[in-house]
Design a protein that fits this description.
The protein has helices spanning 13-29, 44-53, 66-81, 95-105, 129-136, and strands spanning 4-8, 32-39, 86-92, 110-114, 140-144. It is an alpha/beta fold. It has a five-stranded parallel β-sheet, with helices on both faces. Helix 1 (13-29) links the parallel strand 1 and strand 2. Helix 1 crosses helix 3 (66-81) and helix 4 runs parallel beside helix 5 (129-136). The longest helix is centred in the first third of the chain and has 17 residues, at 13-29.
Length: 147
């Protein structure tokens, strides 16, 4: 029923819990897990400064996505160790849009999001990732308790 599951992460504890639960579900179902992380590009001045601080042979590793790449690698590790096939995606821009885009492009069957920001007055704030994803998803959405 669910062959491709999408989950987002920003590296936070609550996102890690959503990724863990999505990974467990993917394992049980034999599904592929797509982990998405949105980012804002690192300013060019910061990149120049960082490249000057590393040896010349490593300067090529300093890039505008280095932080998000590390976040995705960490998020994928536990699921991959469980035998789940994981694809990772870094997308520039809004986190909810990144999740929705990957779900649509990959014909996802399910998006897993955490419940953070879904209670009380916070659920009415524009930009709430779980709220936006649940209203615009091209597939089913599972909201998991992460708090």
């Amino acid at each position: 029923m669910f062959g491709r599951i999408v989950v987002g992460t920003d590296g936070s504890e609550t996102a890690a819990e959503a990724v863990r639960q999505a990974g467990d579900l993917a394992k049980q179902l034999g599904a592929t897990l797509a982990i998405v992380s949105a980012y804002e590009p690192v300013p060019s001045t910061r990149l120049r400064e960082e490249r000057q601080q590393v040896p010349d042979d490593l300067a090529h590793t300093v890039g505008p996505r280095e932080d998000v790449d590390a976040t995705l690698a960490e998020a994928a590790k536990a699921s991959e160790e469980k035998g789940v096939h994981v694809d990772t995606f870094a997308r520039q821009g809004d986190p909810a849009d990144a999740i929705l885009d990957i779900a649509e492009e990959g014909n996802a069957d399910l998006i897993v999001v955490g419940n953070k920001g879904m209670t009380g007055a916070k659920r009415f704030l524009l930009g709430s990732v779980p709220n936006k994803v649940s209203h615009h998803a091209p597939c089913s959405v599972l909201i998991v308790r992460t708090t």
